[in-house]
Every structure is written in structure tokens, then in C-alpha cells.
UniProtKB/TrEMBL annotation, chain B:
Residues 14-264 form the ABC transporter domain. SUPFAM superfamilies: P-loop containing nucleoside triphosphate hydrolases. This is Peptide/nickel transport system ATP-binding protein. InterPro entries: AAA+_ATPase, ABC_Ni/Peptide_Import, ABC_transporter-like_ATP-bd, ABC_transporter-like_CS, Oligopep_ABC_C, P-loop_NTPase.
Automatic annotation (TrEMBL), chain C:
This is Peptide/nickel transport system permease protein/oligopeptide transport system permease protein. It comes from Streptosporangium sandarakinum. Its main location: membrane. The chain crosses the membrane at residues 46-64, 127-152, 164-184, 196-217, 256-281, 301-324. Pfam families: BPD_transp_1, OppC_N.
Automatic annotation (TrEMBL), chain D:
GO terms for biological process: peptide transport. This is Peptide/nickel transport system substrate-binding protein. Transmembrane segments: none annotated. Residues 111-501 form the Solute-binding protein family domain. InterPro entries: Peptide/Ni-bd, SBP_5, SBP_5_dom. Residues 1-21 form the signal peptide. It comes from the Bacteria. The lineage of its organism: Bacteria, Bacillati, Actinomycetota, Actinomycetes, Streptosporangiales. It comes from Streptosporangium sandarakinum. GO terms for cellular component: ATP-binding cassette (ABC) transporter complex; periplasmic space. GO terms for molecular function: peptide transmembrane transporter activity. The keyword Cell membrane does not apply.
Amino acid sequence: MVAFIVRRVIAAVLMLAVVSAATFAIFFLIPRALGQTPEGMASRYVGRDATPEAIQGAVKRLHLDDPLIVQYGRFAKGIVAGEDYSLGPRKAECPAPCFGYSFNNNQPVWPTLLDRLPATMSLAAGAAILWLIAGVSIGIVSALRRGTALDRAAMTVALAGVSLPIYFTGLVSLSVFAYTLGIFPGGGTYTSISENPIAWFQALVLPWITLAFLYAALYARLTRAGMLETMGEDYIRTARAKGLKESTVVTKHALRATLTPILTIFGLDVGLLLGGAVLTESTFSIPGVGKLVIDAIRGNDLPVVLGVTMFAAFFIVLANLIVDILYAVVDPRVRLS
Amino acid sequence: MTTAPGSSAPDSFLELRDLRIHFPTEDGVVKSVDGLSFKLDRGKTLGIVGESGSGKSVTSLGILGLHKGGRAKISGEIWLDGEELVGASVDHVRTLRGKKMAMIFQDPLSSMHPYYTVGAQIIEAYRIHHKVSKQVARKHAIDMLGRVGIPQPDKRVDSYPHEFSGGMRQRAMIAMALSCDPELLIADEPTTALDVTVQAQILDLMLDLQREFNSALIVITHDLGVVAELSDDILVMYGGRCVEYGSAEDIFYRPEHPYTWGLLGSMPRLDREPTERLMPIKGSPPSLINVPTGCAFNPRCAYEGRTGGKATTEVPQLAETEGGHLVRCHMPPAERRAIWENEIKPMLEST
Amino acid sequence: MTTPLDVSGQAMEAQPEAVLQGTGGKAIEGRSLGQIAWTRLKRDKAAVAGAVVVVFLVLVAIFAERPFGGLIALFGDSPNIPNNDLIDPMTSAPTAPLGGISLEHPFGLEPVNGRDIFARILSGAQISLLVAFLATLVSVVIGALLGVLAGYFGGWIDTVISRLMDVFLAFPLLLFAIAIVGALPDQALGMKGNALRIAVIVFIIGFFSWPYIARIVRGQTLSLREREFVDAARSLGATNRYIIFREVFPNLVAPILVYSTLLIPTNIMFEASLSFLGVGVNEPQASWGGMLTRAVDYYQIAPHFMIVPGLAIFITVMAFNLLGDGLRDALDPRAR
Amino acid sequence: MRKTKALALAALGTTLSMGLAACGGTAGGGGNNTGSGNQGTGASGTAFNDAYTKLVNASDAKGGTLKFALTDEPDSTDPGNTYYAWNWNFSRLYARPLMTYQPAPGEEGLKLVPDLAEGPGQASEDGKTWTYKLKKGIKYDDGTEVKAADVKYAIARSNFTSELTDGPKYFAQYLDAEGYKGPYKDKNLDDFKGVETPDDYTVVFKLKAPFSEFDFLVANPQSAPVPQAKDTGLDYEKNVASTGPYKFESYEVGKQLNLVKNENWDPSTDTTRKQLPDRIEVQYKQNADDIDQRLLNGQIHVDLGGTGVQPAARAKIVGKPELKNSSDNPYTPFNRYAMMSTKVKPFDNIECRKAVQYATDKVATQAPWGGPLGGDIGSTAMTPTTVGYKPFDLYPNGQDHKGDKDKAKASLAACGQPNGFETNIAVRGDRVKEVQVAEALQASLDQVGIKATIKKYPSGDWSSQYAGKPEFVHKNNLGIMIAGWGSDWPSGFGFLSQIVDGRFIKDSGNYNMMELDDPTVNELLDKGIQTTDTAARNEIWSQVDKKVMESAAFMPFVYEKTLLFRPSNLTNVYVHPAYGMYDYTWLGVKQQ
């Protein structure tokens, strides 16, 4: 088991290294290949009235004239060991993990990310609880009542749910519940939970429901399909042949097998969302990681874009890791392999 | 007995009367079992033989009541130890399952829950029907594992199914089925997934255990070799119906149905030259939705021409030919026997 | 099966291996798998409805602007012509009630410039479907190829391709797409303007969704590899290439068809999301996601401008999903 | 122009319908126009655009918290590192430059008054040396006194370092400081020869060439003093040494700034500011619609950006008289226009440029800005609020400016392109309004056979790599470029020089995108900036405007306006013409 975990952790770290290199390549190598010069990149960050000296100064300050491999080395070193940055009259220490300083507001990226994380986490956690409960229970009931009107209705709604773009659902819900009926506050009213838990809750109700609706629809479909497949398994027949009550067959035998892969996907989905729910956060103006990165992309703020991408990849890889390990715990067959 | 369905309790331990199990699907009604009747006494073994899709597994699950409450339409009667089960409540049949009647499934790997230890699954089976503590049940499980010949049962009880070899898994499966001393044991292709030497061990084990528990045993298989070793009586199924029924000797030495001949012909035998051609049955099993008109076997039957056209128009009756030996064929008994004696048997014995 | 597209969220429904490994025990004689599937599909009312809508949409897209101005010209207004006289300059909303919905403008008018939404929806349908189809084609080609290689050869090839899929799945996809499309030069590869943009969007969507196809194909190939007819071919001395193309591929057509059909709506959503985030096709070419972006500022005063393109996306995606679900059910009765 | 920011000298032009005489006298010094004092007690007593011409809700009541909200975040709160017009307005709450604008609506607000300085700059005979005397006794919030060296240091850091890049670099451009490496590389301030400080209260600027509008340059917040010992470079924004009526209490970058009263601010040294609220809170990165909502509800007092309300709120305000009466619709310093490249065929032929001028439906290009509330249809390079502005229209394009196809076709024929031609319209892709303008323009041109393709470029690289790079423009055939401009200091020179002076055509970062290099224009600009007489100077600017328009390469769409809302609990409100938004140093709040 220990060896298994160690192996998985090493694989995860390698994966992050690959992702970081690829990310770096996409944001630095591709522009370079398309003819971008260090001066060209620097000119974005020196204001409207940049003198050639100022541009050269920015090139030097941001080390844009170094070979890309050196730049990547510095980027990687910053993440692992930290890096010093010039803020003018003095050097600023940027401790590991250091993703550098925003080109646009000169703030270190890592604390900014951490600062944005609670909003994203609030959104993801609330929605995850909702969709897991709703999606899975609807899926189970649908599978057990297969072919009934209930099943058909639930699956129609679920199909509609996965067919609706989330920003559209979001806008419609804002339009109806916030601006027409005034039941919930509108977009951009997110408040941190420590500041005002009630406002936090109110502001997140619509985003939660919007995000959870999409995922619940998906999970209902997944759970139903998984449940149907499991209910057709030989070991379910065996359980019935033993004389087990149907309820026991469902809860003890079928659910465990059905939910294990669902939980796997759940872990990955939550991991994905923690890296920023770009569309939901944009639609509802929630100051989370996703909103941060969209703003950063629009503002050409490469360090922030890189940081968020790495951050998001980290969560995906971490989720994969946790899921792998959990799977090994839940499914005895995995341990040997 | 084939034509006289009664409603009173029979003498035999198990009796099926005109059992029909139909599945309505969008493609049509699948008549998996279509009028099946037989009897079985305690201590006796019945072999049910047929190709896949002939309805034999559906029959066994039907007896256990596992089609109840689903989409299946079930009619006819199943009498077990004086009780009628088709009309009995789902819940009542459930209490009989595992205790009064148990089943050994074909593929023990997929038939055992991968997430629970073998011990846990036997314990669960035992505790459904016996109000005992987990410790007692565990002792019983170890005991059962030992009895089916699993070495170091006190250790293996905590192993998962995937940690067992195929043969050991089948033994564990049998241990689970026998944990509540069932009076009726149904084994569905118990040895298909095993290699030949292990097959023999498992078959021996089942015979021993049957004797020990004096239970009635139904062995379902497509392999005549298996039933040859185990069975007192043999029932050949085709297209959801019984086409021939008789004692093991009847079936092996005096078979009268062309389909049975085909089965015998396609049975590999160790005493035969490997170079020799088997006698395969041409074609494939019939659709259970659109069963061929007349005799279901007619499209594949080499003797279809000898029925005077009845094969394609009229469903043959299952009729007694002599001493409890039943055959469903349009050809007159004498002609059937003659074909067997003169054409088929010499071919099979042409060593 | 549409993936939840919030940013990066892209988890496919996980029932890959189960699909299409034979039609189960109830043997039905005399009809091929294709015929059976067709019969089943015809009976699935939802799938038929989906198919009808899909065919309708494809026809609408094809004939939207051609020949001779196509359907758009037939119904009057052009998608890019402003109608400022129908807009209240003080509020930027259409002067007439209900967003200016009328016989001439069945879906109403765009705020600010008064362009005809009906024409723009039709025009946008071309982009949506074109991008979705082509992107699906790209991912199917890449995914099928790599999936077969991984599944058939196994060993280090499988390891490399599987790891590659993991890496791709670990990327916050939407972020990359936005960044790459945003950093696009104006002309490259002999293309420029919208042609280049569409090509790049197609490539990105296709390039990032191939692992979903590859995963399924790999699984299928793994099991096909062990099947008798492959053994038979091999024992007859067939080359790997022959086996892959003549023996394995034909058996992959059904699952690839099903999952391509289910990938199309995902790609429609993806294109719409890119357009919504401002990195879709260039103006004034209409796109549904782009219309929704514009609608964000006006949904309180001109809700029709949000609802119409939203419903267009919804109906299209739903139709493809219904059809895809139906196809899957038809080809794999066990999944019902 | 990298960001939406800049100031304008706003001399209210004759097109303004309201009489400016009504607001005689400055709003400062407590002397208000007699009527407004009574009216100011309730918002209901005010009318649409009232704060444009007079002080509304006048009150000297102190206390309360003044709340601002902003959709964006500032480039920096450091007065030496910012280029946003609103921030030049806002930073005066804690930073005092040498000169500042008189606090008054209308024309009076465009005049400069000394702030840190005792009086306006004294120019030398040759116009190349400008001397300012500092007021004595002006203190930082920690009680230490402001010294001349601090002003010199502030100029040095904001113009000569590669770290503080966000502000303009006029001092670097005009000061005679050849070879100076900036205070971060060269710690010895004496090496900075462009500014001299003979004593603690005298600052002398040494220029390369005469510059008669230098007072405007030092009204830029970059001249606000910074003690060298306190400078932490890019981090200075977190703890600015305050000279104004407020000082930093706390600042979370990108989230919130809280200001409290600066006890060391002495009102007797400051004639332009008030200190009414107890504290000032600013929330950054707020949702635009939410800001409007809270503004309408009175939960916040001002949308800090001064760019006006969103379409949803605009519709509400337009629809309800009581809301409309609490709003103002001032000009911003911006002109929104298209430039046609004189170096890209066929626009090298003036007749083809004229064809575009005539063909364009300017009502359609006005709509994206928000219709009449978003700007008046323009016909000149300078805006009505620029000194020297005179209205004229060289290319009347039909009734209501909806385009004149016949004239356009005639011009096309004269150009030798009777059937039209193909060209490209470059636009900043992330600016939705500008893209909508491009779409409208494209549709107009299509009517006369000019087939234009819209090319979107990211605004971040717009001037450095795309429209601002002539080589790129030529290579990619960018005939028409959609742009906007607001000047950095209030004069025709400030507005026009960067965008029309042929000698300002740069290889990159070029704002004269039409590449107009007309010797007459260049000479007039030189002549103007050396003319010390204001009236004569302003006359020259209007001549420049006409010359530019004669080239037909500059096509204005709108003189931008915004719709500002003032909640009833906001007191002491007027639109400061130098910023085109409310004077943030004057505001107070009504306590509930």
C-alpha cells in the first residue's frame, strides 16, 4: 500500500512537471514562435508612454531576454524554492511556491490565488453537496423505477440539464430570481463567509443551484446507467439467490459498486472546479480563481495565467491522486495491481 | 403427467407444471420458457441440457423466484415441498431462497461481489436465515470452506474472490450455496469456467455433498459429459421447451430426438480419435421471439422431410415413448429408433 | 452525454467498456446488428425526434445563406444590417414591445444596433454545426488512431498513449483554448480571418477532446484483440496493419459512431463557450455564444436577446444528445 | 492609448445647451450659488444635469463614511504610477501636486490654482526653466514637513525607472536629464539634473525646449512629493505618504482601500479640498450592474470610475423622472473616432477617405456608446470641452448624419474606385462597444460597395504591436482603425500633439495611426506651444483641428458623454470639468 501511494505521488509530481513545462511552452514558446519579441512582450507592461529605455528596463527586469529554457528554469525554481523580485529600490522576497508577480498590479501571484480560493471553494463545495445528493438519489430512484413515468421525467430533465449552457442557465436564473422576483441578490454580491455568513449564503444560492443543476443532471444520468449496469451483474443475482431482501441487495451490494466509480468522477470534478469555475464565476461575478484567470487572460497578465493554470492542474492531479488512493481502499481488486 | 396439469400438491419434492416465463421487450415477447414440466425427488439429480438460449438458465432462476416482480410474465406452477411458488408472495419465496433452495452460478468470479471477502459473503448468506452472531457465522463459514476442500480455511475466509484460483472460487461458491443446508440445489454450468482436471474434482465434490445433505440437485449445462456423470434423469431443452426427457440411460443409449442426437454427436469424448470429425448441429438456436412455426427444431433438423410436412405446420407434442421416456417429435417412435440404431449410433461408435 | 462545461469541467460519462460487445444472450436470428439497431432506433420516439431536429438544423445551416442568400434572404433581413431606427437610442433596447418581435423580425431585434436576431441565429447555426462537426472529426481521427494503437499493441505504446491522455485530461482545457485562440496571429497556414479562426477553434476543440474517443476505442480494441477472428487472422499470417484496418476497425465503427454523435453536442457547447468568452469567430459573423455575450449587458432590458440564442444552443445540443442516446441504446441493448 | 484614462481641459463649448453663466463664481470657499443651497437639501429638488452646472446638495456637514465602488482595480494607488483619469481625481484626497484645478463646475474648473506651490510656475525668459516655490508648513501624515527634494524625487521615480511604468512620461520627455538612470539604479539624486532644488522650498524644472503649458504638467499627480526614505518602489502604493485631507488606513490590493482623516492636513494651506466624511471606503472589482443597483439604492455613493451606469440602469434612469433628476450627463474628455491610414491603399487618396466620411451612418456608430446619452455625434478632432474647440463639419453626411450615399459614391468615383474596394477595419477585440462601432461602420460601407473586414486585436498589444505599429498596419492593409483619445492635460496641444503631429509617428506605440505628416500641422503645434498668450494659443489649436479634418483621415464618431447617478445621500456634488466626473475631494454624505 505504501509503495502504491509512493508510486502514485511520484507519478503525480511528474505529471505536474510535464504540465508546467507544457503550460510554459504554450504561453511563452508559441508567442515566440509566432514572432513575438522580448521587447514586444515587455511593451505590454510599460505603459502608454514607454521610452525604448523603459522597454529595455522591463525586458531586463522580467528577464524576457533570457533563453526560454532559462526562463522556465527560473519559473520552476520559483515554484520550488522561491525567487527574489525587484520592486524598485529594494528586492522583494517571494517565498516558495512563487509564481512571480502580476504584470498588471504587481502583486505576488500565489497569495492572490490563495485569496481567491475561498470563493471558488465556497462555490464548488456547496454545489458539490447539492449535486451529489440530488444527482445520485435521482439516478438511483430512476434506475430502480426504470421505465416508469418518474424515470422518464427525471431523465428528460437530466438530459435538458446537460444540454443547457451554464452561462445561459445562470443568466436566466439571475434574470428571474434576482431582477424580476428579487428573491436572491444579483451578480457580484459575493461576500466572504467570515465577513457575513448570511450574505455569503444568499449570494451563493443561485450559483450553487445553477452549477449543481448541470452536474446533478450529469450525475443522475451516470448513476442511473451505473446502477442499471450493476443491477444486471451476476453478484447481484447471487445476493438475491441468497434470499437477501431487495432493499439490502440495493443498499449493500448494488450501491457500493455503483457509487465507487461515481465518487471517482466526483473527486475529479471537484478537483476541476477548484481550479476555477470560469463560466459560473464570470456569470455571477464571483471573485474566485476562475474570474481571476479570465481577467488575467484579458489583461495579458501572464504570471497570473500561468499561476492559475498550474494551480488548476495541481488540483486535477491532486484529485486524481486522492481518487486513485481511495479507489485502492474501496476496491480490493486494485491493491494487487 | 405432461398433459394433465393439476392444482393439488404433488408427491414429488419438486414439480413444475407447464411453466411459462415470457419477457415482453420492444422487439416482441421473448418466450424463454414455454410450457415446461418435470418432477424431481430428494436425493435425485436432474440434468437440464441445451444450447445457450434454450431457456435452461431462465428455468432455474424461475424456480428460485428471481424473475418475480420484474418484467417477466410467469404462469404455470412450481411445487416445492408441497408449496406452490408461482402464486406465492415475493417475500415468501425470498425466505425460501438460500435456505430451502440454493444455487451455484456459472462464473464464480462475476457471481461473487468483488468488494467483500469470501467469508463475509458466506457469513451474510448464513445470517439471513439463522439468527446467530457474526462469530458463530464466521466459524460456520470456515467450516463450510473446509468441507468444500479449501486448504487453510481460517485464513482464506478473509480473502477476496479475486485472490482465489478458479477452482477454489467455485468451491467457495458451493460453500456459500450449501451454507444453509438447502434441500434443492441448482447448479448452473458449475464447471464451464474450469479446466478439465478441476472440473472432475468439482463434480465429485458436488456428488459427495448431495449425498451428505440428501438434497435434490438440478445440474444445468450444455455439456452432456457433465450430466452423464451426475444425473439420474436428463431433460433436453430446445427453444424454451423440453424436447426429450428420460433417465440417463434413455438419453445416452436410446435417444430419440434428432436434437439430442446432435448434442451427443457434438460431445467431445476422450475415447475418440482427435482426427475424427464431430457431428455438429448446423445452424444456430432459434429466435425466442419468432419461434419457427411447427417444430421449433425444423430449420435445423436433418429429418424434417420425414414428417410429411407436419414439421413446419404443427407443433409436436411431448409424448411418452416408453417407461417415462418422453420425446417431442413428429416422427413415429419406430422410425426414430430405427434412425438411431441404424444411422446415428454406428456413426458415433465408429471407432 | 454532454460534459459539464464550466471552465475545465469535462468528465465524460463513464460507461465506455460496456458498450457494444455483442447483443447479449437473447439471440435473434436473421438480422444484422445494423438492422436491429435501425429497428430499435426507429422505435425510440425521443431519438427520432432528436434526429428530425438534427436533420432540420443541418439543413437550415446548409441553406442559411446559400444559394442566392438562402433562407435568410427568403425571410427578409440580413444578419449584419443595423436597424437603428427601430431602437430607442436612450435605452438601446428595441422600441417595440417584446424585443421587437414581429412578422418581419420573428425573433426580435438585437439591442443597440437593431440587427435581426432570426437572421443571426440562422447564420450562427452554420458556425455552431460546422465547428462541432469538424472538431468531432478531428478528435475521432486522432482518438481512433491512438486508441487503436494503444489497445492493439499494448506495452510501452499503450503506456505512452495512456499517459498522454492523462496529461491532456489534467489540463484546464478551457483556459488553454482561450489563451491560444486569443494569441492567434491574423494569418497563418495560408488562411486568414474567420477561416483561420474557425480552423484553429476546430483544431483546439478536436485536439483536446480526442482522449475521450481514444479511451473508448482503446478499451474496445483491447477486447477485440483477444477475439477469435483476430486470432484467426493472425494465425493466417495477416499483418498488423491488415488486422487493424480489416478486422478491428470495422468492429469499432459502431462505438465510434455513438460517441461521435455524443461528442458533437459537447463540441457545440464548447464553441459556444469560447464565443461567450470572446474568443470565437470574428464579427460581424454571428455565433450563438457571441450573441449571449452581448446579451449579458442587456438581459434586464431585452431578455429576448438572451433567451433566443440560449434556446438555440439548448435545442441543438438536446437534439444531438437525444439522437446519441438513442443510437447508443440501439446499438447496445444492455445500456438501456 | 493603453488604458482608458486621461484628463481633458474642458472648456465648455458653445454646443452646450445650458448657460454657464448660471454658475458664476467657484463652488469653493463655501460660496455657493444662492439657489442651490436650499435645493440641495433633497435630491428631489434637483434636476437632470444640475450637478453639471452647480453644486448640488451643498452641505458642510461632517462625518459619515463615503463609499466608492469600482468595477476594475486601479493600475496603482501610487500617485506616481497611475494613468486613470478617475485616479488623478481620487488621488488628490491623499496626494497634493504642485498645481491643481480650481474646484468649480463649468469653465472655471478648467483653471489651474497652486496646490503644493505658492503660485503658478515662473518661466524664464527662454521658457526653458520653470520655478515653483513650495508653501511652508505642509506636512505628511506622519508630521514631517514636505521638502523640495521630495518633489524632485517623485518626478525622478515616476519618470525614470523601469518599475513604475503605468503613468505618463512627459517629464522624461521634456526635462533636460540626458543619461539619468533613475533613482533605483542611481541612488544619488544629485545626478538628476532635470530638476534642481536650490533650497527646501524651491523646485526648478530644466526643459529641453520652451513649453508654455508646463503648469498643466505639474498638475499631474506625479508631482506630489514622495520622501526618498519611504519609497518602496512598486510597494509604495500600499503605504503612500499622504499630504491630502485623508490617509491610508488599510489597503488590500484589488479588493478594498480605506482612508481616514489625516490630522496633519492643514486646511489653511489648501484652498481646493474639503474634509467632510470621517472615512472613505473603496471597493474594487465590483460587478458593474451591482454597483448600479447599490448606487440607485443609496448603499454606495459613487461609481469611482466615472464611466457612467450600465444599460440596465440607464434604462431605469431614463424611464423614471425622479431617477433622471438625480443624474448628470457630462462630456468625458474622450473623442471616439476612426483613423484612416494615409499610407494604406486606397486611402492614400483623399477622395477614398472622403467616401468613408460621407458613407458612414453616424447614428449607427453612436448607438454602441449608448445613443445620445453616450455621446454627441462628432465632426471635429477636438471635443467640445477642449479649449479652442470650434464646431464645424467638413463632411456633412446627409440628414441626421445617417450617411450620404451619393456623395460617397461621387468621392469613390473621384478616387478612381467607382465600384468600391476592399479594406480592413482594425479594432480592439475586447472592447465590445468599439467592435459594435466597427460592425456598424462595416454595414455602412457595404452600402456603397466598400467591403471591409473586421480585424480584432487584443487591446494589450494594440498600440505596441498592431494598430500602433505602422509596419504592421501597412503589411496587413489596415485601412481603418477604431480608436479613442482623451488628453492628459487640458490644452489643445495635450489633446492633439500625440495623435496628429507627424513627428510623433513612431515605429511602435504610435497614436498618429493615420500617419498624417502635414508640415502645416506640425508647425502650428510648435508655434502654439511656444505662444504664451492663452487666447492666441487656443486659436492656433482650432486651426490645427481644421487642418486635421481637412485631411479626411480622421473620422470622429462621438464626443463621449456619461450618465452619472448621484444618490440623494451624497452631498456637495458637482461635475468637475477637468475630470468629467464628480469632484471626489468635495463630496460629503448625509448621515441617516
